[in-house]
Design goal:
This is ABC-2 type transport system ATP-binding protein. The protein is an alpha/beta fold. Helices cover about 30% and strands about 30% of the residues. Helix 2 runs antiparallel to helix 3, helix 3 runs antiparallel to helix 4 and helix 4 runs parallel beside helix 5. The protein starts with a strand and ends with a helix. It binds adenosine-5'-triphosphate.
Length: about 280
C-alpha cells in the first residue's frame, strides 16, 4: 500500500492555484526528495498530505485511506513553522508530548532526549536557536514512530554539523524501521546524498517523479553542432546553444546521431534542465 498517493490534486488559494493537477504515488520505504524552487507548491502538497489543507480538486490518500481533514495515525508532519511550547524546557516539552500521547513510553522520552545530545535539555524552548528548535521538532516527530514522515524544509535552519547529524538519524530510522520519509527542499544538494526518489515540482505541477537511478537512465545529455538538432531522436526537455555547440537534455533518446556526444546527466543537470524548460514555457507567449 503506497504511503502517499495524489490523484489529480489541485489547490487554489484566493491568490491563485498553488498546486495543479498533481498525480503521483510514493513507494514504501526510503527517502523522497520533494524539490522545487521557492513558491513551487511543496508546503501546500505536504500540508494536504497531512490533512491541514483541503484540496480544491482531486484526492489525497495515505496508506490507502483518503485524507479528509485529519492526519493518518501512521503519519507525522513537521511543518515549516515548528509548533512547540516556547515556555517549557526541552525536557518538559518532550514529557508534555509523552503525556498527551498514550503510545509514548518513558523509554521513548529518553530516546528523544538521547537524539538531542547537542541541545541543552534544561533550556527553554523559546530561547533555542532555529537549528536547535528544528532538531527538537524532528526528534519528537521521529519518536511518534510514524510509517510516513513528512518534513517541510527540515534542514534549512541547521548548520553543517547539525544537518549531517539529522540526516544520519533520519537514515537510521529508514534502515531500522522501513519508514518512508518525504523531505522538501529548494536546495537539491541538501537532500541529494540521502534520497533515492525525487518528486520535482514547479508552479504547482509535477515535472519529474520516480526512482533517481531509473530517471537518470532514461535521459541523456547530447552535445553537438551549433547548427541544430533535426536529426536527434527523443523528447527534447531543454536546449541551449553557444556559437560553437548545442547542448540538449533528452528523454527516451534514440541512437546518438553522428557528430553528437552523449552522456548520462547527473541529477543536478537534469533538475536544472526541467526547471529551465518550465521557465521558458512560462515566459513564451
Ligand atoms: N495560505 C495561503 N494563502 C494564499 N496563498 C498561499 C498560501 N500558502 C501558499 N500560498 C501561495 O501558494 C504558492 C505555493 O506556496 P508554497 O508555500 O506551497 O510553496 P513552497 O514550494 O513550499 O515555497 P517555499 O520553498 O518558498 O516554502 C505560492 O505562490 C504561495 O504564495
Amino acid at each position: 500500500m503506497s504511503p502517499l498517493t495524489m490523484t489529480a490534486v489541485g489547490k487554489r488559494y484566493r491568490t491563485g492555484w498553488a498546486v495543479r493537477d498533481c498525480s503521483f504515488t510514493i513507494p514504501e520505504g526510503g527517502v523522497v526528495a520533494l524539490v522545487g524552487p521557492n513558491g513551487a507548491g511543496k508546503s501546500t502538497l505536504l500540508r494536504m498530505a497531512a490533512g491541514l489543507a483541503r484540496p480544491t480538486t482531486g484526492e489525497v490518500s495515505t496508506f490507502g485511506t483518503p485524507v479528509r481533514g485529519r492526519i493518518h495515525p501512521h503519519v507525522s508532519f513537521l511543518p515549516q513553522r515548528r509548533s512547540l511550547y516556547r515556555e517549557l524546557t526541552v525536557r518538559e516539552q518532550v514529557r508534555a508530548c509523552a503525556a498527551m500521547n498514550d503510545r509514548w513510553s518513558t523509554d521513548r522520552v529518553h530516546e528523544v532526549l538521547g537524539l538531542l545530545a547537542g541541545v541543552d535539555h534544561d533550556a527553554k524552548v523559546g530561547t533555542l536557536s532555529a537549528g536547535a528548535l528544528t532538531q527538537v521538532a524532528i526528534a519528537m516527530a521521529l519518536r511518534r514512530l510514524p510509517r510516513l514522515l513528512l518534513l517541510d524544509e527540515p534542514l534549512s535552519d541547521l548548520d553543517p554539523l547539525a544537518r549531517d547529524e539529522m540526516l544520519r538519524i533520519i537514515m537510521t530510522e529508514v534502515a531500522d524501521r522501513g519508514t518512508t520519509v518525504v523531505m522538501s527542499s529548494h536546495v537539491l544538494s541538501d537532500v541529494r546524498e540521502v534520497c533515492d526518489h525525487i518528486l520535482l515540482i514547479d508552479e504547482g505541477r509535477v515535472q519529474v517523479n520516480g526512482e533517481i537511478e531509473e530517471i537518470l537512465a532514461r535521459h541523456r545529455i547530447l552535445i553537438g553542432p551549433a547548427t541544430g538538432r533535426s536529426d536527434v531522436d527523443g523528447t527534447v526537455i531543454s536546449a541551449s546553444r553557444t556559437e560553437r555547440q548545442s547542448t540538449l537534455l533528452l528523454r527516451e533518446p534514440g541512437p546518438t546521431p553522428e557528430g553528437w556526444a552523449s552522456t548520462e546527466p547527473d541529477l543536478e543537470s537534469l533538475v536544472m534542465g526541467y526547471l529551465r524548460a518550465a521557465r521558458e514555457r512560462r515566459s513564451s507567449p
